[in-house]
Amino acid sequence: MTASQIIQKHISFFEKRGHKRISNSPLVPENDPTTLFTSSGMQPLVPYLLGEPHPQGKRLANVQNCFRAQDIDEAGDNRHTTFFRMLGNWSLGDYFKKEQLPWFFEFLTKELGLSAKKLYVSVFEGYQNIPRDEESETIWKGLFEGAGIDPEGRIFYYSAEKNWWSRAGEPEKMPSGEPGGPDSEVFYEFDVKHDLKYGKKCHPNCQCGKFMEIGNSVFMQYQKKGDGAFVQLPQRNVDFGGGLERLLAAVENQNDIFQTTLFNSIVRAIELTTGKSYRNNSRLMRIVTDHFVAAAFIAASGVAPSNKEQGYILRRLIRRGLDNFYQLEGKEITPILELIVEEYKETNLYLVEKFEKIKGVLLEEEEAYKKTLHQAKRYIEKKYRGKQIGDELKGVTEVSSDDAFTLYTTHGLSPTQIKSLGYTFDEQAFAEKMKAHQEVSRKGMVKKFHGGLADHQEKTIRGHTATHLLHQAIRDVLGKHVHQTGSNITTDRIRFDFNYDKKVIDEELKKIEEIVNQKIKENLAVHFEILPTEEAKKVGAIGLFEDTYQDKSKIYFIGGSTSSPQDAYSVEFCGGPHVDFTGRLKRFKIIKQENIGRGQRRIYAALEN
Ligand code: GLY
After folding, report:
1. With DSSP H G I counted as helix, E B as strand and the rest as coil, what are the percentages for the chain, rounded to 5?
2. Does domain 457-607 correspond to CATH entry 3.30.230.10?
3. Tens digit of pLDDT for each residue in 349-367?
4. Measuring from atom 2 of ligand 1, which residue has the nearest CA?
């Protein structure tokens, strides 16, 4: 069974149970400033988990491309990848535990043919006023017994650290407004011996590699409030996510995902171009594979390597991938990229169309990296010229931790990369500087998360409605060929990108601002309708519409309605939520515009409080 066949089986299994397939969302999310990348299938569904009606109904399923930057340092073991595909199914206030758990069990044992004897599960042990999940335990007991297996020793209770899921992690880490809930995970047991290095006794969450988590059913029924308390959401949801790469590993009974049929041709290409064996170099080859796969997908999403946000992550992936590749004495990366596209094209055909672009991004970054290494060396040589530094015969140079840190902050080199240039330094002092530096960026990230649209604060909802007015006003002033290419809303400001290849002149900006304020003054009603997609297009709905599977769409009207579209000022495809009347926006002000390249401009704006 191939990875693509597992996807097909998943979709048709849930379609037969009343689910509608939804599209894979872009890897770089739209309208969500809280995160750089889509890292789970639920992320684009947050408004619907919080209670907004979804145009496709209450039962959804898909396969989602995901990227988790926090796993960069985990890559290299038998099961972690930064890029992966997640199978998902959702109940938006419809079915709950007693359907979800039996369905997943049936999917694993009947559709994928896994032996129930190899399966172990975990459930939530409780947290503050949220009870222990005995209902799931009872369901699992029944399922194992039904399969003729003694449930004793198969069901494990874990704390919120392991069996609670939200985008922010454990309950304490969640910002106010964030949805989350207890979860129940399924693990597959491989025929390998427990490694005592990881503890006396093996158990499903042991890190030794004997057990692998293959699916997680989240019972998303809580929301965190401003005072830290948890309340019930208006609806009880199921949010299931299962890693395709790991499900394939279980199907192939292969505890190293890089040896499954999905990855082994890529690994083989690395072996061929480097002349080294996977057996002796598995860690290096896993990192090369993972980082180049992730870099190919991120580059295909239109991201270019840079020193900030998504571009910075892409840069790190390519450079770290190259470090490991060079350690294997690899020279040419093109054959590996070709194999990656070949392997993923069945489910992501656009990689074929974008191949030249992907290749261009990686090869250019390789050149830039070589230049950086050269400049870093020149920086050190100049500073230490004439000084006796280290053992030159051995090619080792001792540099100060300050200089090593400069190589990190201004040349973007990691400690490993600095060492690979032949420099030694006080690593403890370096680590302390790094810690202080990371604390500053962590604070920035926390601030960002709190300011995001996802917390559904009134301020960000107002900003969201303002972008609809701004979008339409821009089209009124600059022409109908102009459309939104991205947006990002925080509690402080609105950022809006659109295709326009010249500067917007001051009079035009002023006019756009005036129109938005006029529409605010008219206090137009804002409402949505769920329409067949074709009809939505007929009434002139604009916006980012990409879901190829979706036959119904949610459309927001500002003024007017389907029966009187001529009275509407704006009609746009959108998940919501929005304010009910434009008057709530009070006053709108454009702060500045920027050229963001590739024929696009960016406007920053703000609303009066
Ligand atoms: N959203 C569930 C998961 O990522 O595991």
Report:
1. 45, 20, 35
2. no
3. 999 999 999 999 999 999 9
4. 241
